[in-house]
Amino acid sequence: MAYIDGFLLPLPTSNIDEYRRQAQAAGQIWIEHGALAFQECIADDMTPQGSLTFPELIKTQAGETVVFSYIVFESREHRDQVNAKVMADPRLKNLCDPDNMPFDCKRMAYGGFNSLVSL
Question: Which of 1, 76, 98, 119 could form a Cys-Cys staple with 115, CB 3.0–4.6 A?
């Protein structure tokens, strides 16, 4: 079954267009290096009843929304191989200036996941 890298981050709504531009370009790099899928999602319905919401979890502030994203790989080994190529790609380095990101990287949550159920 697939291996998934997942991300959750707060994004200032004023930076949505810049984030979309960077994510589109980064996604192309991941796909070119072998990722099976690259998905970026912006919050819409964040009002579930009886459970913790993503905005509560990551403590969004006024003027921020939530981005949920994931990258799909064949396996963890495949993920490690693809990510090594991506991180060495100069196009990614040009996209990701750590001093000029459209969101606060220190507030981003990340994890690698084995698929448990896939239909």
Answer: 1
